[in-house]
Amino acid sequence: MRRVAVLLALSALALSTAAGCSQSLETGDDAGPSAKVALLLPDRNTSRYEAGDQPYFAQKLSELCPGCEVDYRNAEQSTGTQLQQAQETLAQGAKVLVISPVDSVAAGEIVAAAKAKGVPVISYDRLVLKAAVDYYVSFDNAKVGSLQAAALLQALGAKASAGEILWINGSPTDNNATLFKQGAHAGLDGKVRVAAESDTAGWDPDNARAWTARILPTLRGRTIVGVYAANDGTAGAAIAAMQAAGLPQVPVTGQDAETTTLQRILVGDQYMTVYKALRTEAETAAALANDLVRGKRPAVPATVDNGAGRVPSILLDPVTVTRDTIASTVVKDGFVTPGALCAGAYADACKAAGIG
Ligand code: GAL
Known about the structure:
By secondary structure, this protein is an alpha/beta fold.
C-alpha cells in the first residue's frame, strides 16, 4: 500500500519534472539568483557520469536557473581527491553540493564541511552514510540486484544446476554496491552454486578482469554456467577474460545500458543489463538543487535511513533490458539512438532485433 502510494507520487513528480511544470519543485520562471552548484561525481570507469549525469544535470539547471553555474568535478575513483574537490568548491562559494560519493562513509567528512558553511547536500545516486544529508535522489538499488538475479535465473533455466557461476560485485566503498549485492543474493542464494565471488575496488574493469583471469585457472575441471556481474564495466571485463581463456559464452548480467553493452547484448555476448533513466535522475536532482538555491525545501515521496536519520528521498525504478526489449526500453526512451547502436558491424544484429 505504502509502496504504491510512493510510486504514484514519484511518477507524478518525475512526469512534472520532465515537463518542467512541477508543482512541488521550483519551475524557474525567472532568472533567479546567481549561485554556484557543485556537482561531484565519482569516476570515469563508467560512461554514465560524463555522457549522461553531468550534461543532463547542467542543462536542466541552466533552464531552471539561468544565473546558476555548475562546478563539475570528477574524483577519478579517489576518496582523497573528492574531499579536496569538495573543500575547493566550498571555499569558492558553492551554495549547494550534489555528490555521488566515492566512499559512502568517508564522504561524511564532506557533508560535515558543507554543513559547517550552511550548504545543503543532495546525495546523488549513491547514499552518503551516517551524515546529515538533505536529500537523496537515486533508484531502488536493491531492486537492481533482484532484476539481475531474476534475469540470470531465467537465462540459466535448467542449466543452473549443471555448474557454478562467477560472482563479481562493485566497489566495497559504494553503498549502492552493497544494495545491488543484497538484492542479487536474495534472488540467487539457494538457486545457484557460486564458484567464486569478489568485490571490485573502484568499480574498475581492469580489477575485475585481473580477478577473473586469476580465478579461472583455479577452477579447472569445473563448469561455469553464468556470471553475475554488478555493472556493465565488470561484465565486459569478465567476458573478455573468459574469451581469452577460450571458454564458451555464458549468460552474463550487467547494469547501466552502456552503448557498447547493448551491442554485446545484440550479438549475444552479454545476456542483460539494467537501464536506469539517468536523464530523469539528473533532472530531478537539478530541480531539487534549484529549489535549494532559492531557499525552498520541497516535500518528496520517500525517506531512507542512512544511519544518521531518515533522509527525504526520491527513488526511481530500474528496468531490465535484454535483446528482446532493447527497442521498447532504451531506444524508445531516447537513451540510445539507433544510429549509435547499429553502426558498422551491428547493422544486421539491429535489424534482427527489430531496431532501426
Ligand atoms: C553505482 C551506480 C552505477 C554504476 C556504478 C559504477 O553506484 O549506481 O550506475 O555506475 O556505480 O560507477
